[in-house]
Amino acid sequence: MISIVSKEIEFSRLYKRLNILSFFLVILSVAMLFIKGLNLGVDFKGGTLIEIRTENNQVRISDIRQSFLKMNIGDVTVKKFGNDKDYLVKIELSDNKNSDFIEKINNQLSTDLGSVVNFRRVENVGPKVSNELLKDGLLAIILALGAMLFYIWIRFEWQFSLGAIIAIIHDVIITLGFFSFLSYEINLSIVAAVLTIVGYSMNDTVVIFDRIRENLRKYSKITIIQISNISTNETLSRTLITSITTLLALCSIFFFGGEILKGFSFAMILGVVIGTYSSIFVATPILNYTKVTQKTVLKEDSELN
Amino acid sequence: MLYFSKTKIFVIYFIIILLSFFSLTNFIETENNSLVKKVNLGLDLQGGSYLLLEVDSNPIIKEKLQNKLIILRKTLKENAFKYKNLTLKDKNITFSINQNEINKFENFFLNKNNLINSFYQRYNSYELDYSINEGVVSINYSKFGLIEIANSSLEQSLEIVRKRIDEVGTNDPTIIKRGNNRILVELPGLDNPNRIKKLLGKTAKLTFRIVSDDNNFGSELLFFDKSDQKLNISKRVLLSGENLTNATPSLDNRTNETIVSFNLDRVGARKFGKVTTANVGKRLAIVLDNKIISAPQIREPILGGNGQISGNFNFQSATDLALLLRSGALPAPLNILEERTVGPDLGEDSIKSGSLSLLIGFMLVIFYMLFKYRFLGIIADFALIINLVLLVGILSLLEATLTLPGIAGIILTVGMAVDANVLIFERVKEEMKTEKSNIHAFDIGYKKAQTAILDANITTLISAIILFFLGSGPVKGFAVTLGLGILTTLFTALFFARHLSSIYVMKNKDKNIKV
After folding, report:
1. Would you call A126 an interface residue with chain B, using a CB distance cutoff of 8 Å?
2. In B, residues 315-354, which contact A (CB 8 Å cutoff)?
């Protein structure tokens, strides 16, 4: 890998093609989000989630579905969850639920399946709370974007800020687009993942930008395109090593961390890959499009002095 | 950058030793816990129930307005107002008066010592709002009146909820106020919250009322608790649960039936004696939350202040009724807005898979760094180990709550923490191309990498802080470990690893160091 790094890669030759690709992915994701929407979990839509473990291996998923159908408690989805004995049941929100309806479901299910059914986890979220959680989640993402904008606005010239923010929005939209496309569930931990992705992508971009600014000060005759290439190459090995160690940690969560953390780690893996890509191929080209020169940097320097 | 004063070195290692101690105390089983600090396990790891309850103050508002209506009627009469159509509808009391009495009414209603409309000094506002439109007066609760009701019913409910949960006897329950009308209940170790939910779902308003023979004006038709039978019950409450001093489940010696025996306070005993004396031969209905539990015949006056309730109880239901009666009635019904329960076996599984993925992630990163940087990799790995120890130490010192997403936050910290050292090593590598002296290369490398390290960590810290304030439940645990992880990462990279590097470089200043 070191040998590759020591050779200069002309990243700028890929700018145009990858920018078009990114543009299409963003459009596609937005279309996905508008047409298909997100698969909101009980945290944000309200309803009941039950993780079931059956004592009996012979239980079939259709038996469980049949039993719920008989109970007549509205829209119920049942799917396998991890191993053979575990199932995840999602019951849509309805208002005719008494405080003992979970107990009733358990009794009915145990009778129908002919063996004891263990409710390993129950999450029951009412409409009021799910609305609040959704509002808080959106607010958190907007606040994070705003805070990053503020931070980079203080640290850099406006062209840099624009590049970084477009890159972050690009990452968030495509990550959510993937979730929409795959119908993966959005719950509280996905919001946490998105916020972390925002931080990670920003950090990756800032490291490259820092180097670009440093190099802009150093060389006066070189175009921004070349400076971008030099700076990306100089920081490339750091960019890759950090992405790899972060991905190693995340893959460990994805494969060994249990079913509950699957969605979270998947979103993070997606976000780290997209975030790394976007700092090189989305944020940096924008400096070219906005015609950053040595003057841009020196002007700010003189203003500071 | 490579020079460390003796004091600085002392402080750095003192902090490391101190926090290592607190991270070790997690694994010590001891009764003496003055020095031992431990990480708390969240409900998702140790199993337990989380309930968010909302106090529904609508019935109280209605009830209070009903009382206001009675007092208002009385006072309007006393003050010789000519009023018409005094009614209560939808939280509004309305009546019409003559145009020429409007001034008089306003004077009376806004008198700070009047009996209906209290004046709150602290809000500088009245309990009730009123409006007059074409001779029709409309009265309802003001914003502050509603706040007062909400506050007092929340306080009372909190008290009763606490009593009921304490009586059930769960481990270390957390019962706290949330906002102005919510109660948050956390019950660690409880895998089946059904009983608690049932107990909290009842207001437990107990009344003793006479069964009336016909459906006359002063009576209402009520159902039995356990059957579809109905009875006409007088609306007049002879005695209520407030007069109870104790209630216990017991066995009736004659019938061998489970019953609930109760004791009354002095006032209650006197009232009960009087009522039972006056109504011998009639049926006395025992009504709980507008459902009849039983309606036995009064055979003889009950004077001792003790009584019993029978009603086809089994031992569990008798115990629960006694518990409800002992803890008293809730001022308002409680709605369960949110419930999250994790069974202890799932919690155990989560701890196992969390630790396993932490271990594997940790090993992967450690080997990767060794492979990438050889000897400097050892420094980075050593820093990573210390980082993890410090993180656990701080979490223990703060007695923070560790959740499953929190463990994910620790693993993520492991993955991202090496970034600081990578930034430095890469920079040192670049400097070595032009710089002859190893010491200089490291010195400049550290100096130049510093801004990037700060940038990298500040952006993640911003996300963690926002998540901490806006996230809820287990996700908050993620924000905590991620945020604290950044602090320990900065500390280990900028102080501990730098000190190790400086020792290494000083020893090998003339050798050819390969980064």
Report:
1. yes
2. 335-343, 345-346, 349-350, 353-354
SS (H, E, C) B32-89: CCCCCCCCEECHHHHCEEEEEEEECCHHHHHHHHHHHHHHHHHHHHHCCCCEEEEEEE
The C-alpha atoms of residue B251 and residue B236 are separated, in whole angstroms, by: 30
Instruction: Report CB contact under 8 Å: A242, B463.
Output: no
Chain B residues with beta carbon closer than 8 angstroms to that of A215: none
Architecture of domain A47-125: 2-Layer Sandwich (3.30)
Side chain identity at residue A61, one-letter code = I
Q: Report the candidate in A55, A65, A36 with the shortest Cα–Cα distance to residue A179.
A: A36
Whether A205 has its CB under 8 Å from any CB of chain B: the answer is no
Model ipTM?
A: 0.89
Q: Check CB contact under 8 Å for B404 and A258.
A: yes
Contact residues, A window 60-89, toward B, CB-based 8 Å cutoff: none
Which tokens hold the place of B103?
Answer: 């001034």
- Which of A48, A51, A105, A120 is the best residue to mutate to test the B interface, defined by the most B CB atoms within 10 Å of its own CB? A120
CA angle centred on B78, ends B234 and B125, rounded to 5°:
90
Place of tokens 């209650």: B268
Q: Tell the residue number behind the tokens 């506002």, with chain if given.
A: B125
Give the length of chain B. 515
Assigned CATH for A2-41+129-304? 1.20.1640.10
Does A230 touch chain B if contact means CB atoms closer than 8 Å? no
**Across the interface, which of A119, A188, A265 has its CB nearest the CB of B475?**
A188
Radius of gyration of chain A measured on its C-alpha atoms: 25
Q: How many CB atoms lie within 10 A of CB B3?
A: 8
Residues 6+ apart with CB under 8 A from A302: none
Tens-of-pLDDT digits for all 515 residues of chain B?
Answer: 677 788 888 898 999 998 888 888 888 776 666 667 788 899 999 999 999 999 988 888 988 888 888 888 888 888 888 888 888 888 888 888 888 888 888 888 887 777 778 888 788 888 888 888 888 888 889 888 898 889 989 999 999 999 999 888 788 899 999 988 999 999 998 877 888 888 888 888 899 998 887 766 778 888 888 888 888 888 888 888 888 889 999 888 888 888 999 999 999 999 999 988 988 888 999 999 888 988 888 888 888 888 888 888 888 889 888 999 888 888 888 988 999 999 988 999 999 999 999 999 999 999 999 999 888 899 999 999 999 999 999 999 998 999 999 999 999 999 989 999 999 998 888 888 887 788 888 888 888 888 888 888 888 899 999 999 988 878 899 999 999 999 999 999 989 998 988 888 888 877 777 66
| Domain regions of chain A by residue span | 2-41+129-304, 47-125
CA nearest A139 in B: which residue?
B470
Collect all residues of chain B within an 8 Å Cβ-Cβ radius of residue A139.
Answer: 470
pTM above 0.95, yes or no: no
Interface of B with A in 392-451 (CB under 8 A): 404-405, 407-408, 411-412, 414-416, 418-419, 422-423, 426, 430, 451
Compute the nearest-CA separation of B460 from chain A (Å): 4
With b for 16 or more beta-carbon neighbours within 10 A and e for fewer, the A258-281 pattern comes to: bbbbbbbbbbbbbbbebbbbbbbb
- Distance in angstroms (rounded) separating the CA atoms of residues B235 and A140: 53
CB contact under 8 A, A258 and B353: yes
Backbone angles phi, psi at B16, to 5 degrees: -65, -45
Is A249's Cβ below 8 Å from some Cβ in B? yes
- Which chain A residues contact residue B355 at CB under 8 A? none
Q: Would an 8 Å CB–CB cutoff place A133 in contact with chain B? A: yes
CB atoms A207 and B354 under 8 Å: no
